[in-house]
Amino acid sequence: MGHSRNDAGDDTTLKIDGTLDALTAPELRPTLDQLVSEARKSITVDLSSLRLIDSSGVGALVSLLKRARAYGGEVRITGLKDQPLAIFKLLQLNRVFPGQPGA
Amino acid sequence: MISLSVPGLLLYRDIAVRVVGAAAKLLGPAAGRASSPDLADDFGSQVVSAFGEAFNNLAIHGYGGSPSGTIDIEIIGTRDASGAGEVVIRITDTGQVFDPHSHSTPPDAEPERGMGLFIIRNFIDDIDYVGGPPNVLTLRKRFSAPE
Predict the structure, then answer these.
(1) N or C terminus: which one in chain B shows less Cβ crowding within 10 Å?
(2) Which residues from B are below 8 Å from A96, CB to CB?
(3) Is B116 on the interface with A (CB under 8 A)?
(4) Are B122 and B100 in contact (CB under 8 A)?
(5) Residue B28, CB half-sphere, CA atoms under 13 Å: how many?
(6) Residue B14 touches chain A, beta carbons under 8 Å
(7) pLDDT attached to residue B112
(8) By the 8 A CB rule, do B117 and B53 touch?
(9) Interface test mutation site (partner A, options B18, B119, B141, max chain A beta carbons within 10 A)
(10) Using CB atoms, which residue from B11, B52, B114 is nearest to A54?
(11) What is the pLDDT of residues B118-145, one digit of tens each?
């Protein structure tokens, strides 16, 4: 798993690639905690290069969403495809994250 | 049959998932059917997702993160003359008993945990578990004949 963060004004884009699972999700936590501690208003998580996600990875992203919402921030997911898209569809996360098809 | 044996640690999750994903491609509906990539992708995604959650359960709950045992994985594919068939994944471990039928609470609308068994149950057609030792979890996923 690799990730990169880019800020432009109030907008932050977090791009995650590779595998976000029970082994790698803890590696992402400090970055997510930092976004929350800075109270970033608009966070876009770009998953277009994410190959695989599991329940731990989903949990990390949902946790980010809840914490951001608590201070009035917003988290969007973009670029879902293949296995990560199958998981998001099954868990009906299009209802949770704004900007998803069918939301 | 394709088989793999790895230590029961999350560190080995990726290699196990990759092998199962490649096996699902070889043995599932994709085999000899280049015209149905979507079907094959869905099948592979679902198999990989379910297996990954099962592996997590064994490594985290079954072995508790200690390098005390192995996870043995066997993947078998069968298909009949019509082209319909199934992929069977048999996962054997000697950790604590973790019966996937004993936890049935669906995850809430904004889930942070408790999704693993839900994913397994929804992406797999038949789940069989025999507590041991060794414990044997069998995941069976069918595919239909090409139209």
Answers:
(1) C
(2) 109-110
(3) yes
(4) no
(5) 28
(6) yes
(7) 83
(8) yes
(9) B119
(10) B52
(11) 999 999 999 999 998 999 999 999 999 8
Q: Can you tell me whether residue B123 is helix, strand or coil? A: helix
Cβ B112–A63 below 8 Å, yes or no?
Answer: yes
DSSP B124: -
Quote the pTM value.
Answer: 0.92
Residue B97 gets which letter from DSSP? -
- What is the per-residue pLDDT across B81-92, written as a single tens digit (0 to 9) for each? 998 999 999 999
Q: Which of B10, B45, B111 has its CB closest to that of A91?
A: B111
ipTM score assigned to the predicted complex: 0.91
Helices B37-56 & B13-27 angle (0-180, nearest 10): 150
Q: Which of B9, B10, B19, B105 to mutate to test the interface with A (most CBs of A within 10 A)?
A: B10
Look at the block and give the residue holding tokens 């192995």: B70
Which residues in chain A show pLDDT less than 70? Answer: 99-103
Q: Is the pLDDT of residue B103 over 90?
A: no
Contact B121, A55 (CB under 8 A): no
Per-residue confidence (pLDDT) for residue A96, from 0 to 100? 87
